[in-house]
Amino acid sequence: MDRRQFLKQTSATALGALATTPILAASTEECQTFPSQSPTPPVFPRAITMWDFSWLERRWPGAGFENWNLALDELVERGYNAVRIDAYPHLLAKDPTRKWMLNEVWNQQVWGSPDLNEVQIQPHLNTFLSKCRERDVKVGLSSWYRQDVEGVYLQMDTPERMGECWLQTIRSIEADGLLDSILYIDLCNEWPGNLWASAFARQYPEVQWGQWYKEASLHWMKRSLAIVRQAYPDIPFNFSFDNQDVEKYEEVDSSFLDLFEHHIWMAQQNGGEFTSKVGYTYGRFSPEGYKNLVKNGETLYRQTPTYWQELLTAKITRTADVARRCRRPLITTECWGVVDYKDWPLLSWEWVKELCALGATTAARTGMWAGVATSNFCSPQFAGMWRDIDWHQRQTSLIRTSPLDPALLRDNEVAAKLLKRL
Fold first, then answer.
1. CA dist., res. 322 & res. 191, Å (int)
2. Which residues pair with 52 in a beta bridge?
3. Contact status, residue 208 vs residue 242, Cβ threshold 8 Å
4. Which residues, listed in sequence order, are joined to residue 100 by a DSSP beta bridge?
5. Do residues 116 and 68 make contact, with C-beta atoms less than 8 angstroms apart?
6. % of the chain beyond a pLDDT of 90
7. Which parts of 244-378 fold into alpha helices (H)?
8. Which strand ranges, in their side-by-side order, compose the sheet holding 138-142?
9. CB neighbours of 222 closer than 8 A, spacing ≥ 6?
């Protein structure tokens, strides 16, 4: 089914989907609405999901990505038409066809591999991109700079090296005529978090996770972006950030970003109030956080759901307002309820899906999101979330029939780089 057919079939059911989506009436009433007739044809966002480094690493039997055709067909069935993946640019630039041994990031989460694993970047990256293009699934490229056992990830220790490794990655995609499959390129996930931007963090330990607005960080980003942008001026480039300090987009000069790829979760609002009360500490190799999530997570949410929902919708609205004033489109691929979750004894997906439906609906209705995710669990290995096909179709139907704010489209050459790829 092509995109035009999808929109034709789903536009009639979008309003009906709202009736079955558990959301706050107040939050939906406050969302931006636009006239049905505008000077230019409406532009609709992509329903996007994050397949991170899982797309390449989770290929053992039962891991979810051993059959890309099946995974992508199921993605399209659920109504998604964009994914964000790790292109492993540092490894590709070093040797694109070599097999690289990677250390695990964690063993408590189910993104990527829970133990040592081997990957080969090319030709697999281009094979995957071609399969996406066949299905009209656009691809956002990013990198978590996966930690290889030889330490190549630590060689990304200057903005020039980061820019150059991305240049080589883009050229390898261009060589197979696949650049049209790219939606945007995020040079580093949740910059300058030390888990992903390890080389930068070693040089600038005073710049903490989320503090992208610090002078050293700004210099690095601007320099590396200038390198890739000079060679490929028509591709939208950015760095993605976590859910803090959205006001910083206005307080510092953020015009060097072609879009804002911002990650937003209810659980981290108000200084991480929810996770603090639950006792979840983001342990990567200890099960204690999940034990506390089982014991306290849903119970805490159900006690005062309106309070937690309003924390989420307020942050989404603030982010949209800032982006509107900056005249930058938004994309969010990691969101909306809790940061970490998985299929586990005594963990229900229902309250998580409730928050995720609220977040996706609220974001889509602002008209500022060019790419809206439903969660960071929309992936085959999260069986409890993935198997609810109807839930996904309701969310993606609403996302893909919610027009962007026409004001974002007018006389906006920077935004146009992304919007014309939709």
1. 19
2. 85
3. no
4. 119
5. no
6. 90
7. 248-251, 269-278, 288-292, 298-303, 305-326, 350-366
8. 237-238, 182-186, 138-142, 82-86, 46-52, 369-372, 330-332, 260-262, 240-241
9. 256
Q: Is the pLDDT of residue 16 over 90?
A: no
Is residue 160 within 8 Å of 224, Cβ to Cβ? yes
Record the tokens describing residue 376, joined without a space.
């960071």
Helix axes 124-134, 68-77, angle to 10 degrees: 30
Q: Is the dihedral of CA 314, 372, 60, 95 positive or negative?
A: negative
* Cα–Cα distances in angstroms (integers) from residue 339 to residues 248, 264, 391, in the given order: 22, 9, 20
Report d(CA 141, CA 261) in Å as an integer: 12
pTM assigned to the model: 0.92
User: What is the per-residue pLDDT across 134-164, written as a single tens digit (0 to 9) for each?
Assistant: 999 999 999 999 999 999 999 999 999 999 9
Contact 368, 404 (CB under 8 A): yes
Does residue 2 have a pLDDT over 80?
no
The CA distance from 356 to 374, in Å, is: 6
Enter the tokens of residue 288: 């204690």
Q: 105 CB contacts (<8 Å, ≥6 apart)?
A: 111, 112, 144, 146, 147, 195, 284
CA distance 194 to 204: 10
* The two three-digit tokens of residue 2, written as one number: 């092509």
Token digits of residue 124:
């697999």
DSSP labels, 57-96: H--STTSS-S-HHHHHHHHHHTT--EEEEE--HHHHHH-T
Q: Which residue in the block uniquely carries the two structure tokens 């930068």?
A: 200
